[in-house]
Amino acid sequence: QEEEMDIDADPFGECSVVPLQRGDLRDFPSVGTVIPVYIEMPINELRPRFPEIGHWVKLRNLTFCTRSGLWQGVMSYQSKVHIISSEMEERYKRDSVERLKTESRWPQWCPKTLDGITVTNCEGIRFSTLMDVITHSQ
After folding, report:
1. Count of CB atoms within 10 A of residue 79's CB?
2. 12 found inside a domain
3. Phi/psi zone of residue 78: left (φ > 0), alpha (ψ -120 to 50 degrees), beta?
4. How is residue 47 annotated by DSSP?
5. Is 98 within the bounds of a domain?
6. Which InterPro entries does this UniProt record tie to the protein (predicted)?
7. For residue 97, is it within any domain?
8. Residue span of the structural domain in which 108 resides
9. DSSP string of 60-84, one letter each residue
10. Judging by DSSP bridges, how do beta strands 80-83 and 57-60 pair with one another?
11. Which pTM does this prediction carry?
12. Residues 63-116: tens digit of each pLDDT
């Protein structure tokens, strides 16, 4: 049974959201979602479930909520951590690079038809994601 979250409660105490620096954001793929994930369990219980830094993981059964208008994930005791094999990690990276090399650079979630997606008639202007705009050097 799903548990409702009290929207007036502050489940994270006095923790503050620190924005990532532009240089750090450039390390992420330009297509996809970067979302903060908080834990509601002691860190010593969570640490054995994660691999070393630098490995990809798949997080399941997260709860999502908004705080100050921003989405954030919450790991609970019901959440699961799956370590992605190095072969799958390489495949994901390769697929992402190939998808981004195409002329349109449409993200994976993009529908086949372009209804509802803003397009321009300007030649040479390519699709840009929010991450492209945020990390642009100028």
Report:
1. 19
2. no
3. alpha
4. G
5. yes
6. POT1
7. yes
8. 22-135
9. ES-EEEEETTEEEEEE-TT-EEEEP
10. antiparallel
11. 0.51
12. 988 887 878 889 888 888 888 888 988 887 887 777 767 656 666 666 555 555
